[in-house]
Amino acid sequence: AGARPCIPKDFGHGSIVCVCNATYCDTLDPLVLPPPGSYVKYESSKAGKRLERSEGRFQHSLHSPGLLLTLNITTLYQSMKGFGGSLSDSAAMNILRLSRPAQDNLLRSYFSPCGIEYNLIRVPMACSDFSVRPYSYDDVPHDYELKHFRLLDEDVKMKV
User: Fold this and answer.
1) Are 4 and 27 in contact (CB under 8 A)?
2) Which residues form the Glycosyl hydrolase family 30 TIM-barrel domain (predicted)?
3) Using an 8 Å Cβ cutoff, are 19 and 4 in contact?
4) How far apart are the first and last CA of the chain?
5) Distance separating alpha carbons of residues 62 and 11, to the nearest angstrom
6) pTM > 0.90
């Protein structure tokens, strides 16, 4: 269980990337909480592991040296809205260059239950360091009401 086997590609820098194409993209089995007293670990490595799943049990001996982990699940310190990434100009351009089946596989690997289940996306406001050119949505000085704010065609076609 865990990740499907990676189709490896090495660009000559000593680390492997997994190929995502029209017929294959990395996916995961649905996440299932382990029974009490046990844990699940997902590990990736430079040597080629890609979200390799393993299970273990916590030791129940108070006399053995090592780490004692106490979880108080009744005390919450923060709330989590979700997980995600950024959709920059360059990411959108690369995704749109893929065939439609490859796009579907890639997006499924990020957003579906068989992927990593992203539920948030951050879209940069105008130009970012991953844009192909500098631009802004409103270059009119003192336009605090944003009356001259305009999305560019590329934003509507690639990101929105």
Assistant:
1) yes
2) 80-160
3) no
4) 35
5) 48
6) no
- Rounded-to-integer distance, Cα 16 and Cα 67, Å: 33
**Short-list 141, 131, 142, 144, CA closest to 152:** 131
The β-bridge partners of 52 are 2, 43
d(CA 6, CA 109): 13
Average pLDDT over residues 82-90: 91
Q: Which pair of tokens denotes residue 95?
A: 């995704």
- Over 70: is that where the pLDDT of 61 sits? no
C-beta neighbour count of 28 within 10 angstroms: 20
Residue 126 class from Cβ within 10 Å (0-12 exposed, 13-18 middle, 19+ buried)?
Answer: middle
Q: Which of 131, 133, 134, 135 is nearest to 150 (CA)?
A: 135
Cα separation values, 94 from 52, 62, 112, 115, Å: 27, 53, 20, 20
Tens-digit pLDDT profile for residues 88-119: 889 999 999 999 999 999 999 899 888 888 99
Strand 52-57 versus strand 16-18 pairing type:
unpaired
Residue 107 C-beta-side C-alpha neighbours within 13 Å: 14
